[in-house]
Design a protein that fits this description.
Strand content: 5-15%
CATH class of the largest domain: Alpha Beta
Number of strands: 9
Radius of gyration: 21 Å
CATH superfamily of the largest domain: Vaccinia Virus protein VP39
Helix content: 40-55%
Number of helices: 15
């Protein structure tokens, strides 16, 4: 059996940040070269809805963009007397370097990269709210469609699996598993998190709930690790099939960030319905702070998620609202490793 309690001796955060923040520069380039966002915002401090109306952009990608620029200190939100939503103002940094009337304007510097495929994709995503093809490959499908094919699903699942050997142990240490017996890993991919949590909490067994073809990939990878006696796989679609019962811990690990609010709500409702009273929900992800002003690495990671999925990184305040609406209570938050963190909630 593979020892999944091992942790790295060095801090991999900087390595994760290169990949996680890969698309942030392209989103800034799109904002400057296509929309001249900062010049307009300097003259018209506005809330999210007004910005969307003016530029003809959709709320989800625009929210991700504004959060990224807030975390970068290019813009800052402030309370509005006429709106329940904050107004975004440019900062002195942006006024000097990102507003076209400034002698220090860097627009032409960014214009030299505006033909990059990801920049063009961001312009389309901002206007349509439809994800781009995976990694902007013209011969690839969108992520949700590609995941239905064996070849892409195998490659993608392996990519996500390798993160789990670092992220999994840090997650497992933050789960209050005492007195609980069964974990349901919803859309659990390769099963790396279910296996790692089982390794750290020997009294637990786990089930990975995944749709085909990923369920078959998970079975192979769990067997390869030597955890088939403790971690099972059940095939199913979390959006259309009922969640397996008889589990007192539910885990969404790097799942909710793939979906917009309209799809996150029924996922949380389904979890609440399937958990027993006193059941524990665990959300493992990269979370923004409650005010959505950072952390910058998470805001940058949200850009790549906005590009290739239907989701984004959620703020803890956004999730608490969604969890409350679903019926959950008693929220807790803890940081783990590599800009990831854990939110927990209980079913009363």
């Amino acid at each position: 059996m593979l020892d999944l309690t091992l942790t790295p001796a060095t801090d991999p955060t900087s390595v994760y940040r290169y990949r996680d923040g890969l698309y942030a520069a392209d989103l800034l380039t799109a904002a400057i070269t296509e929309f001249d966002l900062f010049t307009w915002l300097a003259a018209h401090p506005s809330d999210l809805a007004t910005i969307c109306r003016h530029f003809g952009t959709a709320a989800r990608p625009t929210d991700v963009m504004l959060t990224l620029f807030t975390a970068n200190h290019f813009i800052t939100p402030s309370p509005s007397l006429s709106s329940a939503h904050p107004l975004f103002h440019v900062t002195d940094l942006a006024r000097e370097h990102l507003v076209s009337t400034s002698p220090f304007f860097l627009g032409p510097y960014y214009a030299s990269t505006k033909e990059r495929p990801v920049v063009k994709d961001f312009i389309t995503i901002l206007r349509t709210d439809k994800p781009a093809n995976w990694a902007s490959y013209k011969n690839e499908k969108t992520w949700t469609e590609a995941m239905l094919t064996d070849e892409f699903a195998t490659t993608f699942t392996a990519a996500m699996d390798c993160r789990g050997f670092t992220l999994g142990p840090a997650l497992a240490k933050k789960i209050p598993a005492a007195g609980r017996t069964r974990l349901l890993d919803i859309a659990g991919g390769s099963g790396i998190y279910a296996c790692t949590i089982a390794a750290h909490h020997p009294h637990l067994t786990a089930t990975v709930f995944e749709r085909p073809p990923v369920d078959r990939i998970a079975r192979r990878m769990i067997e390869k690790r030597g955890y088939t006696a403790r971690v099972a796989v059940v095939a199913g679609d979390m959006f259309t099939d009922p969640l397996p019962r008889d589990h007192d811990i539910h885990l969404f690990s790097n799942v909710l960030h793939d979906w917009d609010v309209a799809k996150v709500r029924p996922l949380l409702a389904a979890s609440f319905a399937a958990l027993p009273p006193g059941g524990l929900l665990v959300i493992h992800d990269a979370h923004l702070n409650a005010a959505k002003t950072g952390p910058l690495p998470v805001a940058a990671y949200s850009a790549i998620l906005m590009s290739v999925t239907e989701g984004k990184c959620y703020a803890t305040s956004e999730l608490e609202t969604l969890l409350t609406d679903a019926g959950f209570r008693d929220f807790a938050f803890a940081e783990t490793i590599a800009d990831r963190s854990v939110m927990t909630a209980l079913k009363p």
